[in-house]
Structure formats: structure tokens, C-alpha cells
Amino acid sequence: MKILMTILGVALFSFSSIAQNNVDPADADATKMEVLEISCGQCNYGMKDAKGCDLAVKIDGKSYWVDGKTIQDLGDPHAVGGLCTTTRKAEVVGAINDGRFKASYMKLLPEEKAKTGHEGHNHN
Q: Dihedrals φ, ψ of 29, to 5°?
């Protein structure tokens, strides 16, 4: 009985490792959650090749237009804290394809409070 269980365990382990090797690396990258800076490409990233306010992400210092999500999907872009008035961090799932960022998921993170340099000490 122990031999049968051992053989079954080895067979299941071998099958699972074979299945993992068949994953396309491009598909794996597209499902990875990242925290990226996002904003309006025209208002904050100086991208001039489109008219109006459009969503963009910044990756390694380079800006990319976003497909799959719009700037309005993430709130009023011209409101205080909106993406035309500031840059924000967001949880993002997607990949760069043909020079554009194809997004399947985006969620704005809470705004970071500006540091004044006076945190952590007392003036008394």
C-alpha cells in the first residue's frame, strides 16, 4: 500500500510540474498585479499625440496610453485629486502591447499625504 501511495504521489507531482511548464510567460506577466503611477497623459505627462484628457501609466520613466480603462472610470478627472490635477498610484493588471498599455484591472490607491518635514518630532 505504501508503494502504491508513493507511486501515486510521484505521478501527481510530475503532472503538476509539467502543467506549470506549459504556462506562456507573456500570459503570466499580463496577470501580475503592479502598483504604477497613473495620470492624464496630456495634463501631467506632456503626451501631445491625442486630443482631450486620456489615461496614461508611467513605467520606468516612460508614459504609455492606456487601453481597456478610461480616465472617467477612475472618477472625475478635473476634481480635486482627479487624474488631470495630480498623479496617483494604482493597482494595475496589464501589459505593454504595440506601444500601449492594455489594462484589464485598475484600482486607485488612497492619495498619499504630502510630508511637511515636521512629522515624528515635537516642538514643545
A: -65, -35
**Residue 54 carries which DSSP code?**
-
Q: What is the pTM of this model?
A: 0.66
Retrieve residue 80's grid coordinates.
Answer: 480635486
Question: Cα angle at 87 between 30 and 38, to 5 degrees?
Answer: 15
Separation of first and last alpha carbons in the chain: 75
5-25 exposure pattern, b = at least 16 Cβ within 10 A, e = fewer:
eeeeeeeeeeeeeeeeeeeee
Beta-strand runs (E) in 7-120: 33-40, 55-59, 62-67, 88-97, 100-108
Per-residue pLDDT of the chain (124 residues; tens, 9 = 90+): 566 445 544 443 443 333 333 333 344 455 789 999 999 999 999 999 888 899 999 999 999 999 999 999 999 999 999 999 999 999 999 999 999 999 999 999 998 776 555 555 555 5
